[in-house]
Structure formats: structure tokens, C-alpha cells
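Design a sequence for this backbone.
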């Protein structure tokens, strides 16, 4: 179902060269969960564009922090084990060790971060938020592996106002805290270490361990470097996470929905719905109830996961229809969200030269997206 509301293009001339609508129906992705829905690493001529300085800096950053992992003699073997576990949907095994988490980060997070950065950059309201004179808080549901965090760090560096502080909270069911901490240390390091140097007065990020579908989990565990990892249950996060509840959790605190300027649910919402439709709708209801007017809710999902089975009859419903009905339909005569941008199928292809900036394969992304604003 095509949303009738015109999309928010931002800079239309730049945006039109970076993506194109898919005109044909694509088969569901056969890739393991947690990998981008992609075809090849070569952009088509109609969407070709030169890699930007910001994209080069972002990939240089990933190259720097992932170099020791990629250079390890057992990296290829470790990566194959992670791929196999993801393909078999054995998430507990796929994220059962720090080595597996590092391998996942090195292989798949850079592609996601590039795609997410472009998606955010094409949204005028998101750019304006980063350029405001006030601080802005971004909550990334399922963002523990760092794709959203690094994309936002790159955005803050390029588009952030001189006095704007971007605060990012990555919420995930898996213990990505140590991996994310390592990446953030590099963000705070010198520009020579990858070109993402940002001081804490410009960019700040933290990690919260939480299953957002568990309503009884009224508070969430803050990450501490002293935490240890043990296998956990089936994940519901965007980065196909699983692994690890802390054995000695730090004091709890609630997810601060009310303070959020932007809430992202990237490559997560289908997993949430498949885990529990009722609990996912309840989560959207809690976000609606707690967030303030003007808050942006950005949902991005692989087109390969855009049809969701509902009930026991084997019938599937389009994810855009479910989201629009849940969020933009009037409740008790009052409309709660307005649609700022809607795309049911859109390609984000690698820029020319991007593949030469990172030692591992990078992929294109074909996604559906919805950007809502709280009324």
C-alpha cells in the first residue's frame, strides 16, 4: 500500500540522485537475520554518485576500530560461525561471545551505518533537529550494535550546530555495551583515528540493556564495563541481537521516552511483531502516551520483511498498513501522529568508491520507512 502523503525529501536535488523507487516486487530476502536486504555492492548507473567526505570519514573510522578484529588469524572462521548461527536463527550462539560480537560489528555494522546516515540526512526535520540550538536526545530501539549511534555521530559532526549536544541512548536486548563503549572511545579520540572526533559536549551516547516488549520490565539495566555475559533468550533487536544479561546489573532506570526528540526503530519492528503483535502494539502505545508533541518516530525495515503473518489463518498483512493504522488512525476522535515521510520500497545504494574505503564487503539496502511526528 502506497502512502499518499508526500515524502519529506529534504534537499530534493541531492536526495533524488541517492535513491530510486523500486518498480518491481522483490522476493523475500534469503539472507540470515541481521544482514541487510541487499543484492550487490555495485550501485546501478541510474543511482550512481561519488562517495562523500563524510562517508569516507565514517568508513575510515570503521576501518580503524575493526582492523585488529579483521587481522586476527581466526577472523574468517569466527565470521563463518556467526553467519551459520544467524542463518539457522540460533541467536544465542551467534552472540554468545565477545569475539562473535566483534565479528558481527566489523562485517555488517558499517553497511547499516552508511544506509542509516543517508536516510537521516535526507530528512529535513532530522537535520534541523541536529542543527538546533538546544540539546537533542535520540533513543534507538534495537541499536546496541552501533549502526544508528555511528550514523548519528557522523551526522552530528557534519550537520550539528555549534552549541547542539546530541545524546543517544541505544536500547537492546543483547549485551553490546562493551563493543559500543570501544567504538565511542574512538569517536572521542583524535581525528587521525578515523575522522569522527567529537567531544562529549557535542555528542554523547550510552547503552541500556532492555527487552522493550517486557511490560513488567519497568526499568532497564545500565551498562557497566564490569558486566559479564551469559546466553539469553531469543532476541527482538534490530541488529539480530541475543546474548547476554548482566550477572551483576547496575541500578535501574526507565527509558526516557518523554525526553526524546527522535526515536528510531531501524530493522527491528518486524522482529518485534513476530515476537508478539500484542506487545509490540502496546509498546507503540506506551511511546505515544509518554513522548511529547513534536517528537519524531522513525521506523525503517527491510522490504524483505514487509509482510507479516497475523493470526493462525496464514494471512499476511503489509507492515506499512499495520503501522499507519496503529499510529495515524484517530483514537477517541483525536489523531496522535502525522506522517512526515512514507516510502514502501526504496533503494539505498553504495556511492561510487565506497567499497574501496573498507576492507570487507559493503551492501546496498532496500527498505520501507515511515517518519511520524507526534501531534
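Sequence:
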Amino acid at each position: 500500500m502506497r502512502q499518499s502523503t508526500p515524502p519529506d525529501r529534504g534537499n530534493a536535488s541531492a536526495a533524488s540522485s541517492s535513491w530510486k523507487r523500486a518498480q518491481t516486487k522483490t522476493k523475500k530476502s534469503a539472507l540470515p537475520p541481521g544482514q541487510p536486504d541487499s543484492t550487490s555492492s555495485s550501485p546501478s548507473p541510474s543511482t550512481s554518485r561519488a562517495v562523500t567526505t563524510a562517508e569516507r570519514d565514517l568508513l575510515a573510522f570503521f576501518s580503524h576500530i575493526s582492523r585488529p578484529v579483521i587481522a586476527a588469524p581466526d577472523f574468517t572462521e569466527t565470521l563463518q560461525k556467526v553467519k551459520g548461527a544467524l542463518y539457522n536463527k540460533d541467536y544465542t550462539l551467534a552472540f554468545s561471545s565477545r569475539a562473535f560480537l566483534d565479528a558481527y560489528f566489523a562485517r555488517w555494522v558499517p553497511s547499516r551505518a552508511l544506509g542509516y546516515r543517508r536516510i537521516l540526512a535526507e530528512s529535513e526535520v532530522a537535520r534541523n533537529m541536529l542543527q538546533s540550538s538546544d540539546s537533542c536526545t535520540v533513543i534507538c530501539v534495537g541499536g546496541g550494535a552501533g549502526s544508528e549511534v555511528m550514523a548519528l555521530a557522523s551526522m552530528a559532526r557534519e550537520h550539528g550546530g555549534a552549541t547542539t549536544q546530541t545524546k543517544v541512548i541505544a536500547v537492546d536486548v543483547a549485551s553490546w555495551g562493551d563493543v559500543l563503549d570501544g567504538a565511542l572511545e574512538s569517536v572521542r579520540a583524535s581525528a587521525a583515528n578515523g575522522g569522527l572526533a567529537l567531544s562529549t559536549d557535542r555528542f554523547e551516547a550510552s547503552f541500556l540493556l532492555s527487552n522493550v516488549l517486557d511490560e513488567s520490565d519497568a526499568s532497564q539495566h545500565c551498562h557497566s564495563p564490569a558486566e559479564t555475559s551469559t546466553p539469553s533468550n531469543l532476541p527482538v533487536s534490530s541488529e539480530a541481537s541475543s546474548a547476554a544479561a548482566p550477572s551483576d546489573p547496575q541500578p535501574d532506570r526507565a527509558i526516557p521516552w518523554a525526553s526524546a526528540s527522535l526515536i528510531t526503530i531501524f530493522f527491528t519492528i518486524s522482529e518485534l511483531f513476530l515476537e508478539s503483535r500484542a506487545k509490540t502494539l502496546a509498546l507503540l502505545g506506551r511511546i505515544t502516551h509518554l513522548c511529547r508533541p513534536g517528537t519524531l518516530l522513525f521506523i525503517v525495515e527491510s522490504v524483505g520483511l514487509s509482510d507479516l503473518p497475523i493470526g493462525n489463518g496464514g494471512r499476511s498483512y503489509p507492515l506499512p498498513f499495520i503501522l499507519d493504522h496503529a499510529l495515524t488512525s484517530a483514537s477517541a476522535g483525536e489523531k496522535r501522529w502525522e506522517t512526515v515521510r512514507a516510502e514502501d520500497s526504496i533503494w539505498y545504494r553504495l556511492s561510487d568508491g565506497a567499497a574501496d574505503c573498507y576492507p570487507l564487503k559493503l551492501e546496498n539496502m532496500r527498505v520501507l520507512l515511515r517518519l511520524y511526528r507526534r501531534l
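The radius of gyration is 19 Å.
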